[in-house]
Specification:
binds iron/sulfur cluster, two-stranded antiparallel ribbon, globular, three-stranded antiparallel beta sheet, about 30% strand, about 90 residues, alpha+beta, Alpha-Beta Plaits
C-alpha cells in the first residue's frame, strides 16, 4: 500500500493515528463510524481542499476508522504493536 505525502500524527492514549491529507477526501465516514467519537474535523485540508480529521485522547486504537476509510487515508498503530516491533528489531 502506498500513501502520498507526510502524515499528520495524533498521539492518543492507546497508540497513534496517522492521517494522510493527500489521500483524505473529507467524506466523514471515519467520524461517523468511530465507536468512541474520538475523531473530529481538523484545520488541515485534504486532497480536495476539504478538512481532514484528527484523533483525540478518547481513541482506543480499535482500527475501525482505518478499516472503513475508502481511500486508505488513516493508519492506526497500537501501543502494543510499537513494543513488539521494537523488541523484534535487529
Ligand atoms: S480519513 Fe478517510 S473516511 Fe475519514 S474523512 Fe478522510 S477519506 Fe473519509
Ligand atoms: S482507532 Fe477506533 S477509536 Fe481510534 S479514532 Fe479510529 S475508530 Fe475511533
Amino acid at each position: 500500500m502506498q500513501h502520498f505525502g507526510e502524515p499528520l500524527i495524533y498521539e492518543t492514549g492507546k497508540g497513534r493515528v496517522c492521517v494522510f491529507p493527500g489521500l483524505c477526501k473529507g467524506c466523514g465516514l471515519c467520524i461517523e463510524k468511530c465507536p468512541k467519537k474520538a475523531l473530529r474535523w481538523s484545520k488541515y485540508l485534504g486532497v480536495y481542499g476539504t478538512p481532514t480529521v484528527e484523533a483525540t485522547e478518547d481513541c482506543i486504537a480499535c482500527g475501525m476508522c482505518q478499516n472503513v476509510c475508502p481511500d486508505c487515508a488513516i493508519l492506526v498503530i497500537r501501543d502494543e504493536g510499537k513494543k513488539a516491533a521494537a523488541s523484534g528489531g535487529s
